[in-house]
Each structure stands twice: as C-alpha cells, then as structure tokens.
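User: Can you write out an input/output pair for a complex, sequences first and structure second?

Assistant: Here is one pair. Inputs:
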Amino acid sequence: MKLETGKQGTSPEMEEYDDEDDDEVIDKSCYSPPMIFGPPREGGEDLFVPPLNFAMVDNGVFRSGFPDVANFSFLQTLKLRSVLCLCPEPYPEANWEFLRSNGIRLFQFGIEGGKHRTGCLVGCLRKLQRWCLTSVFDEYQRFAAAKTRVSDQRFMEVFDISSLKHLPMSFSCSRIA
Amino acid sequence: MKLETGKQGTSPEMEEYDDEDDDEVIDKSCYSPPMIFGPPREGGEDLFVPPLNFAMVDNGVFRSGFPDVANFSFLQTLKLRSVLCLCPEPYPEANWEFLRSNGIRLFQFGIEGGKHRTGCLVGCLRKLQRWCLTSVFDEYQRFAAAKTRVSDQRFMEVFDISSLKHLPMSFSCSRIA
C-alpha cells in the first residue's frame, strides 16, 4: 500500500478516500466551503475540519471519506504526498486544484458499486499485518456502522495473502525514514 | 498527552486503555489466553489479536479497550514505553508482569463510573489539535457506538483549552525524533 518512500520530517505517504455514503449523517453546515461561511471558529481562531471518517491507519497512512473544500486546510497539515481515490466518478476540479497546488499525486482506482471500499482495503492490509479476523472486522464495523455488509467481510476473509508474504508488513513498523 | 520523548527507531510514547464495556460484543474465543487455546493461526503462522477498539490516535499514540493476555504478542510489536490506564480497578497481575518484562511504565488515573473515558480524553486532545466539534464527535461516536452519551459530548464541548494554548499540539506533527 505504500506508494512512495517519505523523506525525514515530512509526513504521510498515502491517503485513502472513499465516498461511503456515510456523508449523509454529517452536519453539512460544518462542511460548508470556507469561502462562503468560513471555517468554524473558537476563541477567534479557525478550527480544522477533518473529513468524515478520518483516521490514521498506520504511520503516514490515513483514511477518510471523500473530502471537500472545508477539509483542505486540515489536509494541508498532513503534508500528504499521494492520494488514493477508490471512486469511479470524475475527480472534482476543486480537489484537483488542491492536489496540484500542494504537489500531491493522485492514484485513482475507480471501483464500481462499492460502499466500503476503503474499509475492505484496510481490512486486506490488516491481514497482511497478521491481524486475526475478529480484529479486522472490529475495525471494519467501526467505520461501516449500520452499513456493515456480510459480502465485504467475506471478501476480506477470503482475501489470499499467501502470494504477498514476501512483503514486510507489520503494524506500526513502517518507519518514516 | 505525551509522557516521554521517544528515541529514533522505536515506536509509541503512550497507549491509552479503557475498559469500555464494548467487550461484551467481542468474540471471546479470539481473546482466549494463548496458553490455553493458542493464538489464532493461519497458514501455520500465529495471528495477532489487537485489543478491542484498538486504533492509532496520532504518531506514537494508541488507544484501545482493556487488553488481556491474548493481546500481549500484538502489543509487544508496538514497542510501547508507557501505558495510561483510566480504570480505578486494581491493575491485573498478568498485565503488570507484561509491562514489567517489556520495560513499560504504567500511569493509572482511575476515573470512577466512566464508560468512554478514553473517548473523552481523545476528544479533548482533538480540541487541542483544533478539530471542530463535528469531527471530534464523529470520532467519539465511532468508538462509543450505541453507548454514545450526551454527557460525554458536553464534557468535550465545554473542555476549556484556553489555558493549554502554549502547548504545540497539531495532529500528526508530533514527530518520533
């Protein structure tokens, strides 16, 4: 899953986006583009708006729902170098511009009809990291919530890591070096 | 929240434990002590059993439910230096022994009656990191699930960071140096 090697002092190697329709449970007012309403403020300071379902997957690897303009100032703090987009839809122009102006490379692997593509991908990574299925599913369900699917869990269960065993892939052992 | 500074090449600075009673939704067979049933195996290799609700909070900072013997081999891979326990109950002897034999320091701040103490603590950290409340609650609810409490969310909402603004606390900017 690591697409590039980072350099000392900079941060992540990849970010995973997913347009899981969890979006609908989010307070959109918080996600309004800053040029219209401005980002949320407290004590006279702007607050960060991480994207829905944002989390750290491992050193330098993050996951989240599909970001919008309100999230860009937060994403900038991550010093991303690559973004992996799993949606088949055309990548929005505003997001393109954000990537371009921050020197971030986009890798888009559009997967049709998926709902928890990022969750499945992270689950496969956890198998490479030798997590038991109970823990893989615990994490998957935390992000998929009411939209947990048996078919996704079967996909992760049968995902065969035997051909990938030559990859050194321990949790938290991928150093930013 | 950082209790010590790490040294190059080793990993986390702190781990947060919480005995959130989410434990009851876990397949206990996977959590059986390895000396009785052995850890889960696949392809002749032992699998890791991360504790319930395990996640990476930030560089070198992790959270989880209260771990048991089945989780020790996974926890060993994290090269922890400190554990922060938020439960008031006496720390179990087996866990003590694990910490002792791995040179991990225990910091116990027993908080009576709490259910999502770790979630509240992480929420307060996110406020220090200038996350908007929508994102703080999104993360809190992901871990608290059906046990989400309005009182916890109010605690995080009114948590006053104004006296802590001298602390440099940006997400993902705490380098392991």
